[in-house]
Every structure is written in structure tokens, then in C-alpha cells.
Amino acid sequence: MEQEFKALAKAIEAIHNQARKFGLDFFPMRFELCPADVIYAFGAYGMPTRFTHWTFGKHFYKMKLQYDFNLSRIYELVINSDPCYAFLLEGNELIQNKLVIAHVFAHSDFFKNNIHFAPTSRQMVETMAVHAAKIREYEFKYGHREVEIFLDAALSIQEHIEPPTIFPVAEEEGEKEKGPSRPRETPYDDLWALDGKPKEQPRERTRKIPPRPTKDMLAFIMNNSPELEDWQRDILAIVREEMRYFWPQMETKIINEGWATYWHARIMRELDLTEEETIEFAHLHASVTQPGKMHINPYYVGSKIFEDIEKRWDSPSQEDRERYGRQGGEGRAKIFEVRTCENDISFLRNYLTRELVEELDLFLYQKVGAEWVVVENDWEKVRDGLVGRLTNCGFPYIVVEDGDYQRRGELYLKHCYEDLELDVPYLEKTLPYIYLLWGRPVHLETVIDGKTAVFSYDGKKNSRR
Amino acid sequence: MAVDIQYSLSREDWSLHRKGYLDQQRHQEKVREAIKKNLPQIITEESIIMGKGKKVVRVPIRSLAEYHFRFNYNQGRNIGQGSGGTQKGTVIGREAPEGAGKGPGAGDQPGVDYYEAEVTLEEVQEMLFQDLELPNLQEKKKPVLASPTYEFRDVRRKGLMGNLDKKRTLLENLKRNAMKGKLCIGGITPEDLRFKTWEEKMRYETSAVVLAMMDTSGSMGTYEKYIARTFFFWMVRFLRSKYQQVEIVFIAHHTQAREVTEAEFFAKGESGGTRCSSAYQLALEIIDKRYPPADYNIYPFHFTDGDNLPSDNEACLEAVRLLLPKINLLGYGEIVNPYYRTSTLMNVLKRIKDERLVTVAIKDKSEVYQALRQFFAGARGRESGGTRI
């Protein structure tokens, strides 16, 4: 054990120095050596300090089962925080942990420098501990069951938030709208009437709630539901805040894993490895970057794109030189720029080329009868299909249209349909949760079989028209 | 001067980190709750009744999914990756046929979700039988069979190594160390050892016999037979798991009744008309010959679609009247065809007013559960368990 610990400490030092040499710019790193079940717990909760809920237990069980059966091994667990926490699996072979360490330094660099992480809190470890304590307190006060049922409901719509943005204007838009439309009242207003002009009647304000459709269902319900008690609003706020913290991770899966994979390979090549370790490393690296069949492997596709960018900027083609004035030899600088600016969608849109789609043999497939069949391999359609899949992190885009539907205080939601239908059984099970949060009937407009359909739940049963 | 340390490695004691396990336990509890709620459906699952000897069954548990708005994955296009030059039209996967065992790795297929929970037959059984019992069980005067059981109820300082009580031994060791001022476990000496010892106890049971009677005539279609078999499947399991001294006699009948083996009973498919009295007659004979009521608790159960020869109904009534004084409870289950109802045996039997005759009509699969409760839940269960006809 002591031996293992010392060897690891030495490896961290060497990898750290090499990462610095490459110009990676990371948060101070805190590595923790943990047993498997602890790492899997963190993986299931997304954070060591998060609140408890049975759904996390379900994921934990699933992950641990796969580990116990040797079906999967977590290669990394790293937290976007300052200092950056990373968890290493006790009992992993040294070379495995070396790979993980190199990988993790690159993730930390990504968290620190990618623009989409700029609005995230780097103290989330502590914040979530506070959240967990609060929820525990509510359980104590209002009953374990009561809190669990409420959390079930809150978590059912957790993805429906306004993602944190690097352009903070968008969020305040709603606020502005309320304000300046009415002229300010002053003690001298009657003076204007002396001119004989009829005083402008203040417009009959049919205030719509929300003034314009909002994507932030969680915030809307939190602020406007007539039903909720303070502790319940607080839980909604907690769920929303945690989701906003996780969101950038979900929208940078491919680019972030690609970046980390690209770097662990470069760093490991520079280390003094024994022959045995070199072979073992090659084996591990190959298994990490093994192409998927039914889905793409973000480690593989992401690192391939980075390598391609580096190559194209290092030795540009004649056309690139003439049209874009690329000098050559700018590969490293370019990939650092890409890691700063892009998320998955822009990364793929800008850098997934025809050559790459063909080389990686990417395609779109669809279910036909009981079979999954390849339906498209035209590169642009494949790229657009992939981008479409990643839009809104793969969640349906649903907005709150009206919080006072038909003047009865009912909630009217609208799915912004783009060619892909919702899962109806799931939808019908989700509406009751929203009813629980809103306290009044809930409606959702979507498109089924090319026709507009409205699903409703009135507290007793589902209906559809 | 503080040096700016950019990295560190540490190892903490994680042995108290139980969060994952606690939430897992809560999830497990919810699975059990869901199973309990769905028991009427689950016990009629073909995979259980037909799955010979299979210990683990997958049952649909709807309430454990985490519902949220999501796309219909069977509809959209997903992105995949081949090993080079994949053409349009290539089939890259097939939906697993229903009922096929899916390993824990099934999650990589789009749209496949964990709707199902795995439960062992024992778990289902345990929940199902929790408060079932043979009703009106009485002490009979025949010298009862006693069987010895062993119970560990004492702890001593000497004993067999195989019966070492590890927990107590460690506690003793801890205590001894603590008295010396050391707060740790270690250095276990013979004086720390504690052993469990047992006591022999006799278990006394009264004896009982169950007569399982099933209609195998032509009017009993696949559905009717399935219901009857489902009932008897659970009944047999219930009796075998709860009672050691219960005997089961299997009787199959159409116009004639025959005593059959258990395997025959569950596999039998015959045709012809129905004369229920034949089964009751045979039951009477068997009771008279082998199971004197003074020595046995006797429970006949009869399942039929009630489509009896009208001329036989009076004979049935007569036979049942003869049976009732000899038995503890007669269970009559009639599988009702929802489409047509002629005058059935049930209507005739209703003329008998006797506590010991319990009749149940089963309209669909899920009511097998009700029937089990009606017959076996005792007075308490019958109050809460649905309609008694």
C-alpha cells in the first residue's frame, strides 16, 4: 500500500511537469485514492457531496454491478472545481492510474479555460454539501417520504432550465419588459393636462405570464406556482442550480474527452515507461478509443478531430494557404484556441470535415421494423444529424407558454417540435409530476403523426386532444 | 514561506462512506413496494408459471423508471460508427427478442430502458405468502409428528470453532484492549473467543391434507386452464413452503375423476363433458379411506369453468353436503367467461349456506391473487380481499 502510494505520488509529479511543459494550464490538483464503491458512488451522484435520493442509488447499483462483473471500469473521475478534485481507483495498476492522471490534468485545463465553463461556480463541492444538509434538514422536518416525493417531481423536469450563458444579457430580457412600458408617475402629471390634450390612457395591461415563452420551466414554477411552500421552492432552486452547474459538462462531452485523450497520449509518450508499461499503455489507450457501433465514442472522435485540426494548421493545403492565409506550423496554437472557444456543437460544425466523417466511418441509423439500419452516410447529413442530436444536450426543447391558461391558473407548455416526436408513455407519466409542482391542471402541446396534439393532466387522469 | 503546491495526493478513510449503499437500499425498497403493488399481475406472469425451475424472473415494474420528457427513440436517427466503408442499408443491430435475458450491458442500445426488475421467485413468494395461512386449522388427535429443529440461543466461552461468534469475539477483544488503554482490535487470545451453542427444540404440527381438483374437460380452454394452473401452482408452493406436514392429493376430472400425479395434474389436457360430482365423489372416497377427519385437517379446492352437465348439478349439491361436515374448508373457484354465462354450478352451490364453503369467481388473470387471498388469508384477509360471492 505504502509502495503504491509513493509510486503514484512520483508519477503525479512527473506528469504534472510534463503537462506544464506542454503548456496546459490547470487548477491546483487534489488527487484522492479511493476504493471502487466510493468512486462509483461519486460517479452516480456526479459529486461526492450531493444530496441523497433513490435514483442515485439505482445508478450506483448499476455502475457497481458493471464493475463487479468487469464490464466497465471508470477511467477517470474529476470535478470541475478550484482546486480540482480527481479520484483514482485503489488497486488499479500503476500504469492505469498514470493514464488517468494525465487525462485528468487535461480535463482540469479544459474546465479552467473553456469559455462555456466560465459561468460555473468553482465552489460547487461546498455548495452541494450545503444543499445536501438543507435537504436532510427538510427530511427531518417534513418527513422523508414527503421530501422524496417532491424530489421525484423536481428531478423529472430538471433538464428544463435556461443553461448558464456567457452572454448574460439574454437572461435579463424578461425583466426589462415589465419596466419601462408605463410612463413614470410624478406629482406634476396634472400639468400635462393643462395643454388640453386628453391624457393618454394607460394601456389596459393584459399581463401575460410569462411575458414571452420561457425555457426555464424550473425557475418559472419556482417563482409562480401558487402551491409551493418555502422549503419546496428551495428544493427547486437547489435542483436548478446543480443542473446549471452540470450543463456545460453535458454540452462539452466530445470536445472535453477528446482534449483529455489527445493529451494523455502526448504526455504518456514523454514519460519514462518500462517496456511492459508501454505495451500495457498502448493496450489501455486502444480500449479507451475503441470505436462504438451504435453510438460514437467521444474519446475517439474528439481526439481524432483535435489531431486533424493540428495537422491541417501545421501543414495547410495550398487552398488553405491561399484562401485563409494559413502560414503553417500553427497547429498547437490552434487546438488551444479551439479548446477555449468551442462546445460540442460548434466543435463538430466547424471541424468535422468530409475526410473525417469518411475516415471515421460515421453514419446515421434508424429503426426499421425490429432492425437498426444504416440510413445515411452523406457527410453533411451525418454531421448535421449528430449536431441535431446534441442540441439542447439531447433533451426536448419545451417552453412555458402560459401560466394562466384560459384564465384558470393552469399551466400550458409547448414542445418546440423539430421532426422528432416525444415518447408518449413517458410524457403521460411526467405530467402528473408537474401537476404536483403547479397544483393546477397541466397541458403540453406537441406534434404526433404530423398533427398538433395537446396532452393534459387534471389531477386525476390524462387526456389528449 | 508557503510554497505554491500545484498538486497533492491523499488517501482518506472511506469506510464510513455509505451513501451509495443507503440510496441503493432505498431503491431496492421501492422495487419491493412496486412488486407488492403489482403482485396480482406478477403471479400470473407466464415466465413464472411456465419457467420450469428458473429462479430469477424479470417482471415489469413501471414505477421505477425516472420519468421525464424524452424523445421517442424508436423514431429518430442515431449516429453510429463502423469500421470502414459502411453503406446505406447495412443492418447493424436487431432488437432482442422479447423475454431474452439481457445482461447488465444492455444500456448501449438506444431506447432500451430498465423497465424490468429482476426478482427471485423466493422474493415474490415471500411477499405473496406473508399473511396467508390454512384457515381454521385445528389440532387433531392423531399423534402428531414431531420434528427436531435447532436454535442457537446461547453464547459460551468454549465450543466448536465452526460455531465461533466472530462479532462477540471481536467485541471481547476490543473490550480487553480498551481496558489496557488501547483503542483497537487485535491480538486475539483464547480468552476472547466466544461460541454459539444450540438447543434442540421439537416442533409439533398438526396434519393436513389438501385435495386439489381440476376440471380438464373440453370446455376448459387454454385461458381457463391457465388460470386454474396458476392458482394451483401458487397453492402448492405456498403449502410446501409453509407447512411440513401437509399432503396434497391431485384429482383431475371430466365426466370421470381420477387421482393423478403432480406432473400429470399440471400437464393434463383432455376433452369431453363435465360431471363435477365425479370429483367430489372421489374426494369423499379418498377421505373415507385415507384421511379420517378426526385425524386430519381437510381442504378440498376445486377449479372449473362451472359448465357442468345440468343433470349433474343436484348430484354435486348432494356430494358437497356430504363433504362439508368432514372438512375445514371447501374452496370452489369458477373461471367466468366474460362473454356468455349460462346457469353454472356456482348458482347451484350458492344454495348451501355454510361457513366452510367459500366460492370465488375469477374474471381475469389478476384475480387469481384475490382467490388465493380469499381461500388462505383467514378471516382477516377475507374482509379486505375483494368480493366474496
From TrEMBL, chain A:
> What are the SpoVR-like C-terminal domain coordinates in residue numbering?
396-447
Domain of life per record: Bacteria
Q: Which InterPro entries match?
A: Spore_V_R (IPR007390), SpoVR-like_C (IPR057008), SpoVR_N (IPR056174)
Its name, as the record gives it, is: SpoVR like protein
Sequence ranges assigned to domain SpoVR protein-like N-terminal in this UniProt record: 3-394
- Stretches the record annotates as Disordered: 166-212
Q: Which organism is it from?
A: Neomoorella glycerini
Q: List where Basic and acidic residues composition bias occurs.
A: 175-187
Q: Which PANTHER family match?
A: STAGE V SPORULATION PROTEIN R
- One Pfam family, please name it: SpoVR
